[in-house]
Specification:
The structure is a single chain. It contains two helices and no strands. By secondary structure, the protein is mostly helical.
């Protein structure tokens, strides 16, 4: 599933505004932040 944060990366890559390497790094960064936020939400909900 593509998030609002990931979507702009797709046309930017396809239109060659981003190299494949830059796109991959940004995509990986977005995925990492999504995991961190999911963990944070899980922790907050467990402590309420």
């Amino acid at each position: 599933m593509t998030s609002e944060t990931e979507y702009p990366l797709i046309p930017a890559r396809d239109l060659e505004f981003l190299s494949k390497e830059t796109h991959e790094k940004l995509h990986n960064d977005v995925e990492e932040v999504k995991r961190m936020l999911a963990f944070l939400l899980k922790t907050i909900r467990a402590n309420c």
